[in-house]
Model the fold of this input.
Amino acid sequence: MNATTRLEAALKLALALGDVPARPPRLSAALHDAVFPGGGRVRPHLALAVARACGDTEPALVDACAVAVELCHCASLVHDDLPCFDNADWRRGRPTVHRAHGEHLAVLVGDGLIALAFEVLARAPTLHPERLGGLVRALAIGIGASRGLVAGQAWEAEAKVPLAAYHRAKTGALFEAAAVMAAVACGADERPWRRVAAAVGEAYQIADDLADAVGHSGDLGKPVGQDVAHVRPSAVQTLGVEGAFARIIALRSEAEAALPECAGRGHLVDWLGRVVERLLPAAQGQARCG
Amino acid sequence: MNATTRLEAALKLALALGDVPARPPRLSAALHDAVFPGGGRVRPHLALAVARACGDTEPALVDACAVAVELCHCASLVHDDLPCFDNADWRRGRPTVHRAHGEHLAVLVGDGLIALAFEVLARAPTLHPERLGGLVRALAIGIGASRGLVAGQAWEAEAKVPLAAYHRAKTGALFEAAAVMAAVACGADERPWRRVAAAVGEAYQIADDLADAVGHSGDLGKPVGQDVAHVRPSAVQTLGVEGAFARIIALRSEAEAALPECAGRGHLVDWLGRVVERLLPAAQGQARCG
Done:
């Protein structure tokens, strides 16, 4: 089974976990729309790639990690799109959850997906239940109010915003959680994977800033120009367009240099290359068109 | 240390957990206002009472359970008060979080408190790390989209609402989580405690419906008449005022009958009596005034 098939199957199973007759039907529909069809699923694919590099010794637990990370990412998108944040009408080329199902259900979908993420972790069959504590902690920190997703969004409400802390919390933290959780699930040392993920996360955030600054909304399936419209700091403002491209290239090298010796190292180098190549031509194409 | 002192100290420690310089300061202030000063803290007190009845053999883990349940309860209040739900301007006699800090921070505070709840569980020192899975699962189900808090709120968006499932999800689920988690943390059988908690939760919800139907907002520190205003089902509509009082008395007997034999049984009977006595005179007073 390839990684995409494996991931989509695991996500479907997770959504079905509590899809009992007792679940309110409108909420069920909204939960589904928040997760399917997905975007790039980059964070869970990073988890699967790290697990493969570490021998993928606990596949059910790794699946749970990948799913949990993606559910939290989807939750953050639903809440970010709300009128009190980006007030976005569409996402992935379709109406956002609050436009399709109402603001109140969108708030609940976000909360419900976070809860489901932890439930999926706790239910995963594993020979190593003692690893659960590390997984729950890593995910909670990755989405949390201190240096996770919530902190990243909250920096946008501050007058003085430290760009590095803001980007690391807003994007890097969940990439780090994905890689760390996969390593912990496989019983590997998490530290080198945290550095790899931090570099990938930063590259991804810069590509996102580039797309927002110079892209076309029709190509991206979501509105552009949001950083300027919402007076948010952006790597493009700090580095310029050329500097931002150069930084993505440098981050690819940083990620490769941080890779530990492991059975699946070659596979992970290939995966990193593909991810960065997808980020770059897309952003370069946008820059040419823009 | 009495239960209130123990609980408030544990909550303060939890909020301080990630209160590093890296946390956005406005978010920190909003998180604090969502948790302090508290309301009745009934759910975490239930957890402590159940733990005491079970011998309180793992106090640090029990504290984490009590804190995690209360943080999730506070998160749900912050989200429930949002304009797209109750649109409440005040809570516990003070401005609601979105009124004081803005809607976007209120959404983030709810998300951040849920994440923190799971982080607290995962960080709790314990001799029994294998119990963590049961705790995470119980909390996730208690707040989740299938039959937890999120499902309870989502029933309000449906045309046909099954009152028992709605009340059990909206209120009972987190009472059940509190009791089950305390029992699991102490290595006790969770099943009888689930029944005890279900009865206490239902009594609490009926008292809340009574207060909303016949109370005064000045006494309660929050708006009344919300069930009628938001066309929500209420036990008062189904049972009438007298019937609702009678049901609370019956539920006290049900809870006592479900209590298992345990060292702290007598203490728990006293605690149940005090809780129900506080619910009843308050509601009766409201009924006389109303």
